[in-house]
Amino acid sequence: MSDAPRVTISRVGDSAYVPAAVSAVPTTTVASRHSALVRVTHWITTLCFLALLVTGTEIVISHPRFYWGETGNVLTPVLFKLPIPSSRALVPTGYGVLPDQNGWSRYLHFQAAWVVVLTGLLYVISGFFSGHFRKDLLPGKAGLSWRAFWTVIAGHLRFERPSAAEAWSYNPLQRLSYLFVIFILFPLVIWTGLAMSPAFVSAVPAAVNLLGGQQSARTLHFFVSLALLLFLLVHVAMVFIAGFRGRLRAMITGRAGTDTERT
Amino acid sequence: MSERSPGERPPAERLLDQSPRDRSRRKLITTGLAAAAGVAGLGVAARIAQRYGLVPPDHGGIYGLGETLTYASQRLLTSHSLAREFPRNQISKPPFANEMAPLKEEFKRLQAGGFADWRLSVNGMVARPASFSLDQLKSYPSRSQITMLQCEEGWSYVAEWIGVPLSHILQAVEVHPLARYVVYFSIDPDWWESIDMADALHPQTFLAYGMNGDELPVGNGGPLRLRLPRQLGYKSVKFITRMTVTDSLKGFGEGLGSSSSEAGYAWYAGI
After folding, report:
1. Do A107 and B66 lie within an 8 Å CB cutoff?
2. How far is Cα B161 from Cα A174, in angstroms, rounded to an integer?
3. A39: how many CB neighbours lie within 10 A of its CB?
């Protein structure tokens, strides 16, 4: 009884969307949409990112002014300031003073940073060894054309539900977005974060000098975090458009397909 | 195949051809061994970390893991590194001073006397406990550094700090070889901190009495401030009057090593 839907799923896989190597798996076992390692690291990263986002916002509130260069304080010109209340009377934003929450925010920020960095290392190292990046994320030659990108974008603009094929494989734009987040944004957010640490830069001064100064690092850290937040919002929106339950199940249990099959 | 005992097969064949049950048993054993090794490894790591002074006093509680990882890794990475120093033209103009709690009567009395009666007492695990006047501190070879003061809130400034390296004073009082921390107190009873010996003996850790070629302004911690450029501003305690050398932080306040830790802030502020 319980075997029946599993066989169906693997047939979906066999018919068109799964690479030949995977379809050689006996029909009694179901190919996982996402490997266990991808699923576990995905959700640990999600939790850590949310913690970093909340605590990072909380830390920014204590001084919602941004500068460029080495130094910046209330006596120096700003690059820009956020129109929000501050948790310090020192910073006159004109929006009142909030209670100070920096203590636990900073503790949790760095704890979550440690967990997400170690999780990310595990993911990236295993991703290279297992061929995850090559097989699942690197776009094929055909995917790297303006026409392929346009097809995806046009579909998005029409709010089309992705085809059943996309339950088993990422589209070219999606692949590039994930690669950008994994290999550009995450390294940048770690680098700009460490560049703010007075002890770290005493050992590795280039980390902050290359960015143009400690306040530049702080400003860049803010913008890279905004880029990651933007990715999160678009990512979740896309999951909703593609079929929330099916995509969520695929990332939790590894089984994919049924949600889109029903349509 | 499966009725044959695995031992009879040539090794190569054994690896290639396994029943699902063999595989799941093997997986269970490997996972169990890995988990046991992991737990044992953590235990050993904790003992080694404790022994080499890589565990901060605020290692308990839910944030203890992250805090210990940060302190341990930065301590290993930065044991001898120097904070960045800047050229004179990078000194922040106008000079900045953070807001402070109102000064107490005792401070005002000393200030009225031009700080002539200001004393810094040093005791604890030292051979010659002593009490220094500002003039005595100034009689030691004076050093200066142009370094950044960074606040955990996000603002910063660069200033020239003039003073005597703390290591000179610790040499003068002769610190016991088993000492592990220096605890230092502001005249403001709500502000005290501690650092490990690596930071206490670091060449850029100053007892600062001057700033930007002049006396250290009261707003910046004058007449005497501990200056620790590799950590955030709250470790650079203003108005220092007292210092205790110790091998354990347990007897100070709640045993968390500083007033900041008791207020929920990290004891180690290198990040």
Report:
1. yes
2. 52
3. 17
Amino acid symbol at A259 = D
Give A89's contacts in chain B (Cβ within 8 Å). 99
Strands B119-124 and B240-246: parallel
Cα nearest neighbour of A67 on chain B: B155
Q: How far apart are CA B82 and CA A168, in angstroms?
A: 52
Please answer whether residues A52 and A112 qualify as being in contact, where contact means their C-beta atoms are separated by less than 8 angstroms: yes
Of the pLDDT bands very low, low, confident and very high (cuts 50, 70, 90), residue A243 is: confident
In CATH, B75-262 is 3.20.20.190: no
The residue extents of the domains of chain B are 1-51, 75-262
Cβ-defined contact of B271 to A197 (cutoff 8 Å):
yes
Rounded to a whole number, what is the distance in Å from the CA of A181 to chain B's nearest CA? 24
The whole-number mean pLDDT for each consecutive block of 10 residues of chain B, a chain of 271 residues, reads: 44 51 75 84 82 89 93 90 96 88 90 95 97 96 96 95 97 96 95 96 97 94 96 96 96 94 94 92
Q: Which residue of B has its CA nearest to A197?
A: B271
Question: Cα–Cα distance between A68 and A78 in angstroms, integer?
Answer: 8
How far does B231 lie from chain A, in Å, by closest CA? 6
Residue type, A237: A
Please report the ipTM that was assigned to this predicted complex: 0.84
